[in-house]
Write a structure and sequence with these properties.
85 residues, mainly alpha, 82% helix
Length: 85
């Protein structure tokens, strides 16, 4: 029974974890954008707004997509588990 539950819910849990990680990256997007856009040895620099937007919105969209995949695959796995009982 334990192995069956692991097989059924392994992929949904993976989608959940990926969704949360990408949402965290999106929430910290401005800091990540300034870190990655800093030239080597520069004391002062500016980060373009489009770069900051890309570091925020792309991970957020991916995170929301993975959470939607989690909901759908979890629902299917739960239905299969209930049907087999």
């Amino acid at each position: 029974m334990n192995n069956k539950v692991g097989k059924l819910f392994g992929v949904p849990i993976l989608f959940l974890l990926l969704g949360v990680v990408f949402l965290l990256f999106g929430a910290n997007g401005e800091g990540m954008a300034t870190t990655f856009s800093r030239p080597a040895g520069a004391a002062s620099w500016t980060t373009e707004e489009s770069t900051v937007d890309a570091f925020i919105f792309i991970p957020l969209l991916l995170g929301i997509s993975f959470l939607m995949l989690f909901i759908s695959t979890f629902s299917i796995s739960f239905y299969k588990l209930q049907k087999s009982r």
